[in-house]
Design brief:
2 helices; elongated; about 170 residues; 3-stranded mixed sheet; about 50% helix; Hemagglutinin Ectodomain, Chain B
Amino acid sequence: MTDQPVEPLEQEEPVAIDPLVAAERERDEYLDALQRLKAEFDNYRKRVARDQHELVARAAERLVRELVPILDDLERALEAAAEHEEAKLEDGVRLVHRSLAEPLAYEALPENATDGGFASHTQEALLSQPSEAEEGTIIQVVQKGYTLGDRVLRPARVVISSGAGEGSA
């Protein structure tokens, strides 16, 4: 190699960046990121709403699919009633009842318990009357109640005992 002096490379002087331009660039980057995030969230919200709508539609379809045969059974029972065939009518009504009770039991729709004492969170006392039973005991179920999961769909309507009446002691 030759001993030639090395020329220093021309160094550019650092260009002073205007703080205002830098702040505007940073603002634009944040605004762009925020707009993208907003668009992603809007798309997510629309997708969730569409999925929820489809789920409700499928659930309704399933319910209708299970109820249509029950409707058919009920129509047959009404035809038997029009022909005054009491035995067929009773059989038809029993068939409709069983056809409706089975899908509800499958969906875990139990009846609210009505044996024993009154429970205000699952039962509604329509009246109390004197009886031989202990006070607060259910003596008659007027209408069955149902629970779905941990929610009471309809409270059982009951008559409760007010204890021994006057003169029965």
